Amino acid sequence: MASSDKLPFDGVKIADFSWVWVGPTSTKYLADHGATVVRVESLSRPDILYSLGPFKDREAGPTRTHAFSDFNTSKLGLTLNLKTPEATEIAKRLISWTDVYVESFTPGTMAGLGIDYEVARKVNPSIIMVSTCLMGQSGPASAFAGYGFHAGAVAGFYDITGWPDLAPDGPWVAYTDVVTPRILSAIIMAAVDHKRRTGQGQYIDASQLEMGLQFLAPQILDYTANDHLTTRNGNRSNFAAPQGAYSCAGDDQWCAIAVESDEEWAGLVKVLGNPGLATDGRFATNSGRLQNHDEIDAQISQWTAAKTPQEVMRLCQAEGVPAGVVQRSSDLFEDPQLAHRRMFPQLDDPQVGPVPHTGHLFDIRGYDHGPRSPSPLIGQHNEQILKEFLGMTDDEITEAVIAGALE
Questions:
Q1: What's the structural domain count of the chain?
Q2: CA dihedral angle for residue 263, residue 267, residue 269, residue 275, rounded to 10 degrees
Q3: Both 249 and 210 in a single domain?
Q4: Which of 215, 242, 306, 375 is most buried, judged by most C-beta within 10 A?
Q5: Residue 4 has pLDDT above 70, yes or no
Q6: Catalytic residue at 177?
Q7: Do 356 and 389 share a domain, yes or no?
Q8: Does 165 share its domain with 258?
């Protein structure tokens, strides 16, 4: 694995016992930017991501799934069967070696395995331990196990997503799994900085529910301050109009338009080429446009139907009207802006060959940011980690193999 003193997290050591999405993605950020991250897993309980696609060439297989590969770049792979006492002892040695210890299981799991925070702190007094789960480590709902779909629903995202005359639709994919790593990775970075300055570790109890709620702050504040309950409203805003995704020429082609001011409304009227909209008193104010949204949408849809989404976006933006093509995943790989930002770097995966991976939403001047190596195969770096990092002898490793600790 490449390393350089130019990488901001070079020298930071992380033991990643987490699985699926939140923990692995959070540690991926630090791994891609220089940290040494040991990904701990077991053949006795493979990561759920191995069974999820997309699969290379649509051929299913645990080493062919891009989900696992994309979430675990730049890491080293270690297998530990924590059902064996020998593996538990190795885990303690790993925790003693590391700066940050991350797990993402149901509360109580790590205590049952004999490697909870109290144990971790004994073997490494300055350890930073991160536990992330749906509801947090304490409270009446702490035992609630599930995925980001469930936390997204409990947090309230599903009730406000969709159309008012239909059942809750919910944001696509497991919502809190997607947003939580953006917060959790920053929390870990802050903890690492605190440790560098003070020498002190800490325990981080990261509730996906609570981190997800940060993205509903305006709706929560609106309810507490104004007693206004936000609910499903399609693609429209409760505060400005017109807004929506409008059908364009072609097969299932759309462009999103969002007007938020009188100036932008004037620009849209000019684009539509319908001066009558400018003189119609019903549309002169934002409140009037909100009340007459259906009629305005009909006018916009008639105009967009004859144009490609790219034309709509270009014409609207030329007049200062926010607009964007509704792109498919296949469109993203041809987007010139994303290409310029190197959003999809290619990595040569040992199992499936060169495949694109996700880049980063930020760029740090002075070095080539982004994934440094493809995700590890199961147990790929066992010998390196056990010998070089943990100082185990050949005899100790052989005993661990015989005991089934490295499965």
A1: 2
A2: 90
A3: no
A4: 375
A5: no
A6: yes
A7: yes
A8: no
